[in-house]
């Protein structure tokens, strides 16, 4: 359906201006709720649980599901479905298992604003809180992935230079997040989620005219892919992430644990009442299904109608240029931009909240204001200011790190998340169910799990990111169990010795 694209750039520029105006207005509206650290981080009770659930799904989706994973489909074929099916089924299962207990623990000790604080409160350990906050900084790789995805979109569809695309995304997000905090982030994500759902469904429906075959469209797609290369329709791919059963099992473990990531679990803490958790999880599940399943088929179709693309991550932008008229392309591009920015804003908010609440407040405040008697309000104001200032610095660092385009957007986004999961999976999950879990075991798990992951990936000992994450998180569980039991035994031994005296 290629046609004159003269009007495409003006269409998108007008919509971008409208988008920036809307998010800025939303940021100013959210400023009413962002005068405190709690309001900036969570906006608790200010947003309906259904909208928070939708925000969970949109924050999950990101450039990875709309650009990176379809790029995998373009390269590896049907084996990529192992990832997309897990994104809905396995991730939602994890959300159902973790949500209620996480929320209940989060209400103790005056309430938790961040995942590091939640762990610090759970194990009564400031050291653990600081360690996890440092680990959260790995999410900057995820932000870089979103920057790359946005720049790729602009470059492929309308010819905007790569660097300008990155600068636009960073600038828009920093403005409205700094103004409106969690309120602006969650409300914008909820609205953008509707646009993203429409894009997903439309991409899926478009197979009827790009691939053809009517009701047998999947059979036609299968035949076309087989004609190109029989490996594209095999359940496993000879190279890439899906080359073995164990590799796929590692991916499912990642997707199950994905809900534990700070920018997602913070959504649970935003829900005000326990009875609202049902609405939250149902809405989150629905949005996960729509946003994770459909777009991958457009990546498969792109391999058929657009062979030989220079970059697999450009499969979706190139596909929509081929499949839709200019006006629809402009709307789809805005939907895809929403997918990218809806995750980026959550990541920025999660990192900066941890910098302010878990690093600055715990480490810097006791030193900088040692001899000053700060009131709670004054302390909260200083922490909030530190969080907002760090937002600008994180944005600039992510922009710098985005200068060199990665080979695979999907692998880049999963690198940082895998590092975090390797460290926190055991302390969170065992903290729910195991009565012997204690801070010694939790600290050992964070250090050994994340440390092992960094060693395996940096040394090349395990080149498969997901398998490195699996091995490292299993080490984290072992360290958590053994460290907790040893600490408990030592405590009992000291108590017995004291009684003997």
Automatic annotation (TrEMBL):
<feature type="transmembrane region" description="Helical">
    <location>
        <begin position="194"/>
        <end position="215"/>
    </location>
</feature>
<dbReference type="Pfam" id="PF00474">
    <property type="entry name" value="SSF"/>
</dbReference>
<dbReference type="InterPro" id="IPR038377">
    <property type="entry name" value="Na/Glc_symporter_sf"/>
</dbReference>
<feature type="transmembrane region" description="Helical">
    <location>
        <begin position="242"/>
        <end position="261"/>
    </location>
</feature>
<feature type="transmembrane region" description="Helical">
    <location>
        <begin position="386"/>
        <end position="403"/>
    </location>
</feature>
<keyword id="KW-1003">Cell membrane</keyword>
<feature type="transmembrane region" description="Helical">
    <location>
        <begin position="6"/>
        <end position="26"/>
    </location>
</feature>
<dbReference type="InterPro" id="IPR050277">
    <property type="entry name" value="Sodium:Solute_Symporter"/>
</dbReference>
<feature type="transmembrane region" description="Helical">
    <location>
        <begin position="127"/>
        <end position="144"/>
    </location>
</feature>
<keyword id="KW-1133">Transmembrane helix</keyword>
<feature type="transmembrane region" description="Helical">
    <location>
        <begin position="164"/>
        <end position="187"/>
    </location>
</feature>
<feature type="transmembrane region" description="Helical">
    <location>
        <begin position="465"/>
        <end position="487"/>
    </location>
</feature>
<feature type="transmembrane region" description="Helical">
    <location>
        <begin position="81"/>
        <end position="98"/>
    </location>
</feature>
<feature type="transmembrane region" description="Helical">
    <location>
        <begin position="441"/>
        <end position="459"/>
    </location>
</feature>
<protein>
    <submittedName>
        <fullName>Sodium:solute symporter family protein</fullName>
    </submittedName>
</protein>
<keyword id="KW-0406">Ion transport</keyword>
<keyword id="KW-0812">Transmembrane</keyword>
<keyword id="KW-0915">Sodium</keyword>
<keyword id="KW-0769">Symport</keyword>
<keyword id="KW-0739">Sodium transport</keyword>
<keyword id="KW-0472">Membrane</keyword>
<keyword id="KW-0813">Transport</keyword>
<feature type="transmembrane region" description="Helical">
    <location>
        <begin position="282"/>
        <end position="306"/>
    </location>
</feature>
<feature type="transmembrane region" description="Helical">
    <location>
        <begin position="318"/>
        <end position="341"/>
    </location>
</feature>
<comment type="similarity">
    <text>Belongs to the sodium:solute symporter (SSF) (TC 2.A.21) family.</text>
</comment>
<feature type="transmembrane region" description="Helical">
    <location>
        <begin position="409"/>
        <end position="434"/>
    </location>
</feature>
<dbReference type="InterPro" id="IPR001734">
    <property type="entry name" value="Na/solute_symporter"/>
</dbReference>
